[in-house]
Amino acid sequence: MLQNWLKIYLYNCKKHKAYFFLTILCLAMGITAVLLSTLYIKEESAFDQWNTAKNEIYYVEYKGEVSSSEHHPFILSKLLKEQYSFVQDYLVYSGYTPEKITYKAKSYQIDKVIQSNQSFFDFFPYPFIYGTKEKLFNHPQEVVFDKEQAALLFGANINPIGEQVSIDNQMYTVVGVYDLGGKRSSFMPEAVVNDFQFIAEEDLVDWNYSASSLLIKTANKEKASQAIEALYQEHFLKPMAKKEQTSLEELLMLSGGYYNKKAKLYALVDLHFDKENTIQIPEKPLNPQFIYVILGLSWVLLILSLFNYVNLSLSQALTRAKEVGIRKVLGGLKQNSIVQNLVETFITICLSFVVSSFLTLWILPFANTFLLTQIEIRASDFIWSFIGISILILLIAGLIPALYISNYKVLNVLKGDFHRNRSGAWIKNIFLIVQFAIASCFMIGTYIVYEQVNFMTQKDLGFRGERVINFPFLEQEYGGDKQVKYDAFKAEALQIKGIEQIAVTDLDYGKIGLGGYAIFFNYEDLSLDLNVSNVEASYFEMMEVKLKEGRFLKANFANDSIENAVINESALALIQKETAKEVVLANRTIVGVVQDFHITGLEETIRPMMFVLPSEQYNNYRSVSAKVNLEYLETLIPELEKLWNVFNSETGNNFEYQFVDKQFARSFETIQMQKKVLLFLSYIVVFIALFGLFAVSSFTIGTKLKEISIRKVLGAETKSLLQKLSYQYVIYCIIGFGLSILPSYYLLNLWLKDYAYRIEIGYEVYLVCFVLMVLLTLIIVVSRAYKATKVNVLKYIKYE
């Protein structure tokens, strides 16, 4: 019996080669999507799961409605451990910084260097190859390396303990080599230095010096939160209130909510999935919404493939009715027909999994690069996925056609009128409509995402950055006379052919932070906070930022350096004034208002800002901007780099520059990734839906060839036949598109709400997608219908 079933299965595959191949391909694409998304989620969910203390380690954030503090004074962590027994240990750290590491004649840049204290390997117990964690960081300026970085610097299987390396022009002693071992963690540094183990005494006791993030190890989260709040109040807020000669309650009220903060603790096990996008950990957290979207889209793709398979099976059943009828006449049981169809479905699943395995292995390297992850496939992943997905497909795509075919009436089949049997037709129609609805949703979504990307890339940002390059100059903490060196550098750089203007700034385009610092003060009856940024007098002119009112700051006006400032339109709106004339904010007279211009991404509104001239005393700027003539770019960059190296020899860093417009474009990276994912999936979804339509229409029209022949003999025109054959599919397309309108509108508005500057979803979006969907449907259906109208009439009516 099984042998007979296999012969019939192979016969039908050969008879319908194209449909068989496309069915396998569609199912394989759906399986691949689910398999990759499942592996991705499994990989991301593995973060920190290996850490035995994952439920006792907490990230500390001091959070309020107005502002939040991710960095804390060093003294906080010290007092927590000394005064509260339920705080077992603490870890202070910085984010990753790229550093140039020099060993003898070899130099490498290591991108993931982290500053920390002695507890790092108690919190993250990576195994040591050379050295032990008990003997680490007992002396200043010590460093440990990951195994791979140590091999690059010192050679493979070489013990580097005691060797001296140069980091940022300072000598460090190597005291260990550890192995990340493929473990996934929120902290995976390539090198750890103990700069936070030995802190200068004045910094260690200063509550105003917040330079590090903080993890604590405790078994009592609630008590730890209360302890942090108590320490902040006792050592920071009360002394501040005393200094301002006011009460603590008055200080909290006058701050406009800035100091009304609570300690919020996040468990290490939850750090990688940051719903609020505020956690500052070295390995970038992942928004769980993205996970849900990826998983949902992959399952939609698989379900669409299943619907497609069911429709195709039901349509093919019309050509196999005589086979079923003859089996029943010869004594075949209904159960046998069901089992036969399930066996055929299982074979199809197996073949689809074979194709899916090749697709997965082919796509995986691109997916790892695209998603910035390290997904690996194991045999167990395939086995469990095969079992789970096979059961699902057998229940949906195998059982429905099997029950439909097994229920054929023998007499109807033998009389030849089984084509009139409408049993199961409603299932095909519903599945086809659902396919149209899903494809329409993807098409509308892709259109909206493209429009939003175009809107963001073409929006007037309020500045011109395509000819302005940014590059660092010395370190912000440079101890020498930075201003003198900058003035000398600027004078020589302006002599380079192609450099038109130079100015310093601390603005950082395209990042979450603006640069600069925040101030909080009262103005009339308002409690305000502004971001203050340092810009050189010529900066706005160079960036072509427009002046709305008053004047720009000028370097030759003495008062502009210490008493005057410029604000943007958002700041003017914040103080509820129509003009900035005679306005004094935070002891500075406002002499001008510039039009709003974007610094961070378009996800957030332009913040109220004040601009002041850089202070020579504090060297408070982070980069130099230069406006260049692009015709001379190839020659001026090498000259500028040579000059920069002369003035930045103390840093040991390499000259790196970036155009400002490219810097700002970093804020588009997420939406660009979403666009690519959605576009790719849309192509697949529309392809599957149209193939399903092609297959169903082909088989259905194929059952009406005798009817078409008779109508042609009776004088029916081709036009009327095409209308009759195509009409129902166009109706299904319209119904499916109609069903997609509300879900797509809701989901896309949900997505767009994250953008402060966004497009509106208008009727034209739906009109364009509707016309395109109907046209694609007509192309498929009319092509099949037209071919049917050209049949040989005599072949189908010779028995009539």
UniProtKB/TrEMBL annotation:
Entry annotated with the keyword Transcription regulation: no
Class of enzymatic activity (EC top level): hydrolase
E.C. number: 3.6.3.-
One example GO MF annotation: hydrolase activity
Cellular component annotations (GO), alphabetically ordered: plasma membrane
Highest taxon of the lineage: Bacteria
Coiled-coil region(s): none
Membrane topology note: Multi-pass membrane protein
All copies of domain ABC3 transporter permease C-terminal, residue ranges: 297-408, 680-792
TM regions (residue ranges): 20-41, 290-310, 342-363, 383-405, 426-450, 677-702, 729-748, 763-786
Domain called MacB-like periplasmic core: residue spans: 21-231
Location(s) in or outside the cell: Cell membrane
Keywords per UniProt: ATP-binding, Cell membrane, Hydrolase, Membrane, Nucleotide-binding, Transmembrane, Transmembrane helix
Protein name (Swiss-Prot/TrEMBL): Macrolide export ATP-binding/permease protein MacB
Organism name: Myroides odoratus (Flavobacterium odoratum)
